[in-house]
Amino acid sequence: MRTRLVVGNWKMNNTVTESVAAVETFVQHVDAKSSVDVVICPPYLAIPRLRDLLRNTHIKVGAQDVFWAESGAFTGKVSAKMLDEFCVSHVIVGHSETRGRFGKLETPENTLGYFAESGATINLKISALLYRAMSPILCVGETASEREAGQTEAVIRTQLEEALTGLDAAELYGTVLAYEPVWAIGTGNTCDSAEAQRVCKFIRGVVGELFDEHVASELRILYGGSVKSSNSRELFSQPDIDGGLVGGASLDPTEFSLIVMSA
Ligand code: 13P
Q1: What Rg value do the Cα atoms of the chain yield, rounded?
Q2: Which domain holds residue 201?
């Protein structure tokens, strides 16, 4: 039996002050006895305050990215060891935005190389997180042009193979996968629930092939991409969708609590 999980990815939104206010409101709205696992991934700076605020609740604090080395000459980076000190439970890796793949491009095209996360770096990040007993939330998904070219399954299979290479089946038990079609992120174009289910089932099947059926059946697979309270119930009721990775709608504490309750 897979426990439902709803993750809020705040991306580069909310100062520390704004983060505290948002979480205080969210905690008032969300059912403390809910059986749904909830993780909020704020910007790094807000992690210590939110950890303190959420200490006696069922809501966990996550991070949006990590660097794979424990320490060293890596200007601007944050390691799993540093996150561990603040009891970070989950860390997003391989998000399309850190891969430099945007559904709605608001930065100049010639800056995309700045993001440039690859299958190899995602694999290193996952290993660094597992070493610290933190749960990676691995994002996979195709762009609009890849979908139109009929490459959805091939793209996702390659992303899974690259990210998960060298891992043992046992290491996958704490890992979470998220299907985030790039064209649905921040665009308002949610993937139709039947299609999201089809792709999530495909992802579970690939994990079964790469590892084993038991791991695949225990793995939590989230859907992300323009999730709102108006579509979350239908998405989360699909048999292979175990919850959501929510961007924009997680910034509104009332809306986010409705999404959590729908799970
Ligand atoms: P939106 O919910 O804003 O589409 O973002 C989804 C996402 O990228 C979550 O990681």
Answers
A1: 17
A2: 5-242+253-262
